[in-house]
Amino acid sequence: MKAIGIGSNQPALWAQDHGVIHLISMHLTLRTARRLAHENGSYTLLAAEHAKLKLATGTQAPSLERMLKVRDDRPEQLRWSWPQPQRAKHPRD
Fold first, then answer.
1. Does the structure show a pLDDT above 60 at 74?
2. 29, 65 contact by CB (below 8 A)
3. Element (H, E) at 57
4. pLDDT by residue (tens digit) across 31-57?
5. Domain ranges in the chain?
6. Backbone phi and psi for residue 59, each to the nearest 5 degrees, phi listed first
7. Dist CA 17 CA 54 (whole Å)
8. What string of DSSP letters covers 7-42?
9. 79 CB-near residues (< 8 Å, 6+ apart)
């Protein structure tokens, strides 16, 4: 984990058993997500979208309309939205 910038030469005082287990599991989850994104081509598609919006140039952020248009041009497998929240039914209802 230190090879990718997580950690330091100083001992971490918070690194108790539960903290270390959590840190390692989150690191492995991140590595798995990165690998999956490269394997299924999502990384390439989203990197092209990033370049299309010119986010890496340090210029002004794109407008909301521009971001929504680029989002709508995504392939079907990369489109998603949060579900609408539903009210929980009261036990008396």
1. yes
2. no
3. none
4. 898 898 889 888 888 788 778 777 766
5. 11-40, 45-75
6. -85, -170
7. 43
8. --SSPPTT--HHHHHHHHHHHHHHHHHHHHHHHSSH
9. 71
Query: pTM value?
Result: 0.44
- Of 59, 80, 61, residue with least CA distance to 71: 80
**Token reading at 4:** 């990718």
Return the ∠ at Cα 68 (arms to 67 and 74), rounded to 5°.
95
Burial 45-70 (b: 16+ CB within 10 A, else e): eeeebeeebeeeeeeeeeeeeeeeee
Max CA distance (Å), the chain: 59
Task: Report how far apart, in Å, the C-alpha atoms of 59 and of each of 3, 4, 55 are.
Answer: 31, 28, 7
Q: Which position has the token pair 């407008």?
A: 63
